[in-house]
Amino acid sequence: MRHILEIDDLSSSELARVLDLAAAPDPARVLTGKGMALIFEKPSLRTRNSMEMAVVQLGGHPIYIAANELGLDTRESVEDVTNAMAGFHAAIGARVFEHSTVERMAALDRVPVVNLLSEQSHPMQALADLLTMRREFGELAGRTVAYVGDANNVARSLALGAGLAGMNFRMSTPPGFAFADADLDHIRSTGIEPEVFDRPEEAVGGADAVYTDTWTSMGQEEESEQRRRAFEGFTVDERLMGFAQVGAVFMHCLPAHRGEEATNDVLDGPRSRIWIQAANRMHAARGLLSWLINEAQQ
Ligand code: CP
Ligand code: NVA
Question: Which ligand 2 atom sits nearest the alpha carbon of residue 254?
Fold first, then answer.
């Protein structure tokens, strides 16, 4: 049974197939009469709405479940919840504080499990990001995406996805907020060499897409003041965008903290693709579910 806990649970050719399915105008209704459980331990706008709409577009019925109503590992173990859910649903999606929670769900192999964001990865975001860049550039291979900011879940999945698609990945983070060596090795396993720079200007130099995310992820709120100081100089503004290719686009997974990781000029400017990117979450989710429910399990 296939599960999507990180984007490199897909091979390069499977990723290309998922992106093709995401772009298909009239998808087969592979979820007719079936449900998908969507469990959230953290807040969500885009992920919840895009997953629910993707399930509906495939003929299925999504059920949103706030994790505190389930009492994961307090009222009932993660394993018991998963086994019970598998009796009702064709797939389970979960947004979790600890990546090990989705790993425990997947380990039971009852129904496909999709990671809807953990502290480690955000594969559904990376799919939408690749879809957005593919629509922008046509061919992804050989293009360069530069990530400026925290080496977080979004950055990790983006880097892995870029690698699988044959893109170049450049990044710049403040000292103490970079990827660990194990993460860099993981990115290298996709076949690319991530390029790491001290200065954001160097990372952005010549990039086709400039990407940033919040400096304080969900679950890190107590560090926000310290992080705001540490990330000074890493704001994506018009000046920094000036180092990228002429015609480069700006991307952000959202929610944005306006004036921190990016300025309003950039977020709302002509290079910004943030709303297309957000809308592509639904198309990417539909493509992934089409593949996962139908093709992957055959
Ligand atoms: N980008 C993203 O995952 O947004 P939400 O947290 O609103 O789902
Ligand atoms: N890195 C952010 C992404 C939100 C979609 C977080 O984990 O909170």
Answer: 5
Ligand 2 in reach of 152 Cβ (< 6 A):
yes
Structural domains in the chain plus CATH codes: 7-122+282-296 (3.40.50.1370), 124-277 (3.40.50.1370)
* pLDDT tens series, the chain, 298 aa: 999 999 999 999 999 999 999 999 899 999 999 999 999 999 999 999 999 999 999 999 999 999 999 999 999 999 999 999 999 999 999 999 999 999 999 999 999 999 999 999 999 999 999 999 999 999 999 999 999 999 999 999 999 999 999 999 999 999 999 999 999 999 999 999 999 999 999 999 999 999 999 999 999 999 999 999 999 999 999 999 999 999 999 999 999 999 999 999 999 999 999 999 999 999 999 999 999 999 997 6
Q: Which residue is closest in CA terms to ligand 1's atom 4?
A: 46
Tell me how crowded residue 93 is: count the other CB atoms within 10 A of its CB. 30
Q: DSSP assignment of 193-257, as one string?
A: --EEESSHHHHHTT-SEEEE--SS-TT-GGGHHHHHHHTTT--B-HHHHTTSPTT-EEEE-S---
This prediction has a pTM of 0.98
